[in-house]
Amino acid sequence: MAKIITFSRTFPAYHPKSGQPTDFVHKIWKSVPVVKMQLVPYAEAYFESFPWEPNEVERFHKLLPKHHTIRAGHRWKAGEVFSPRVWSGKPYNSPMITIAPDITIETVWNVEVDEDGCFWIYCNREGEDILDEVAQNDGLSRKDMLDWFDTPFTGQIICWNRNIEY
After folding, report:
1. pTM, whole model, 2 decimals?
2. N or C terminus: which one in the chain shows less Cβ crowding within 10 Å?
3. Which of 55, 143, 142, 44 is closest to 99 using CA atoms?
4. What pLDDT is recorded for position 75?
5. What residue segments make up the domains of the chain, in order of their start?
6. Record's superkingdom (predicted)?
């Protein structure tokens, strides 16, 4: 049975963009390694709770894919499978919506953010400033990603795209 990972539809209350859409669902749909037709029932279920406006289509087409997520702790391993979901309303007080078929984790990297806000990624590219690339692959800008995490933070980058290498 797949573990569940929930994704935020909006930026959290403590973030400077509090309440604004993250567009993570659409960014994940652009990234998941499935035939796009397999996403149709998931998109229908999602849009049943969160209708979209036709004028948003062009904006959605311009979004870059989200190839990974960053989570606290060290509970994930390559080869594991997760079910991507969002809350249909208030978190923990509403049903979840599954937004895509189960996804296999290709790679996991350990990450830390120290008290000074320095982001440390334990990977093959140590010493390089790859934070812009990591943020983009996580569906965020560098600033938005840094504002997302409380310090200190210890966790993992959980990646489902086999072409991402750090």
Report:
1. 0.92
2. N
3. 44
4. 97
5. 3-159
6. Bacteria
